[in-house]
Write a structure and sequence with these properties.
This is Protein glutaminase domain-containing protein. It comes from Prymnesium parvum. The protein is α+β, with helices and mostly antiparallel strands and 319 residues long. 46% of the residues lie in helices and 13% in strands. Strands 1-9-6-2-3-4-5 form a 7-stranded mixed sheet, with helices on both faces. It has a two-stranded antiparallel ribbon with strand order 7-8. Helix 8 runs antiparallel to helix 9. The longest helix is centred in the last third of the chain and has 53 residues. It is extended.
């Protein structure tokens, strides 16, 4: 799947580099392919239909916390790679705090609230698969006004969460979002850059640009990085190095392609012969009346199946 490099600001981050760059509180936005996601995007007039938050523990492990019929946390890279066939685009937004803010305190507050109140709290139960009865009135209020704030602090019901409400509740607990914000009126689009002025984050917090996450395979990534490093050379050395790099990659790809082709040939030909012989013998067994003829047919079937027991030979292709 191709992800548009210049869809937002031209920046991209490789999914396997993300754990070393992200921090607790960062936002992951999703644009999925399924019909339900398309309905949400049309319903909210937005590019995004799902949102999750990054949680990075003290052991330097990165997780994504999201709501999907319940709040759960998964390994960040594993979850994003699993999402890959089902999405149009995934973007990452970095949480930015001013220099005078105690980031460690903010991150600890987020981690404790997520683990103790949203994931491990036995008294908190998600009693609805999707709380339409709460979302629809909030959506109609949103059509009348873009103001997410009430005149007094809003106490959010943790038993009826959805993806964007869960993220909003976490930010409210960390003090990065006003307690007057009605989390029921927060949708995934509100965590995109055009709605930063609507969210009005507190304590000087803000979110950075939407950076697309790329999913190219590791060999392709390694090759592209090596090719880009060649540009640091000059003149004939740069040209020769680029030629050698491209030739080595082409030989490797050709060798792997030839190996797969020969393997398919070795597997398909005996299998096809075996299937034809088995079908012929089974038909003959049905038509034979005597036990001796049946035994002869079964012995012939066993002899035909013997070549399949021999191991396949993989050709050694020199590169």
């Amino acid at each position: 799947m191709a992800y548009c490099a210049g869809r937002h600001n031209g920046n991209r981050v490789w999914v396997y580099d993300l754990p070393s760059q992200c921090r607790t509180g960062d936002i992951i936005l999703f644009s999925s392919k399924d019909r339900g996601a398309g309905f949400i995007r049309a319903f909210t007039a937005s590019e995004w239909n799902h949102v999750g938050m990054v949680l990075k523990t003290a052991s330097n492990l990165s997780y994504i916390v999201e709501w999907g019929g319940g709040v759960f946390g998964c390994d960040l890279v594993e979850r994003l790679v699993g999402y890959r066939p089902e999405v149009h685009n995934i973007a990452w937004r970095r949480l930015k705090l001013p220099p005078h803010a105690d980031r460690r305190e903010v991150e600890t507050s987020i981690e404790c609230f997520v683990i103790d109140r949203l994931i491990n709290d036995p008294t908190r139960v998600d009693n609805e698969l999707f709380p339409f009865r709460r979302v629809l009135p909030s959506y109609f209020r949103h059509l009348r006004t873009s103001n997410l704030r009430k005149r007094s602090p809003v106490i959010d019901d943790l038993s009826s969460l959805f993806c964007s409400k869960a993220v909003a509740v976490i930010l409210k607990h960390a003090g990065l979002l006003s307690r007057n914000v009605d989390a029921n009126m927060v949708f995934p689009k509100h965590f995109s850059r055009p709605y930063d002025s609507v969210m009005k984050y507190q304590q000087g917090a803000s979110y950075g640009e939407e950076i697309d996450i790329s999913f190219e395979p590791k060999p392709i990534r390694k090759f592209s990085q090596a090719l880009l490093s060649v540009t640091r050379l000059h003149g004939r050395r740069r040209r020769d190095a680029a030629v050698r790099l491209i030739q080595a990659a082409a030989r490797g790809w050709k060798a792997r392609s030839d190996t797969r082709r020969l393997l398919r040939q070795q597997m398909c030909n005996p299998m096809a012969a075996f299937c034809r012989a088995m079908r012929k013998c089974l038909l003959s067994v049905r038509s034979h009346s005597s036990m001796a003829e049946r035994n002869a047919s079964m012995r012939h079937l066993a002899r035909t199946a013997q070549p399949l027991a021999t191991p396949l030979r993989v050709p050694q292709t020199s590169v």
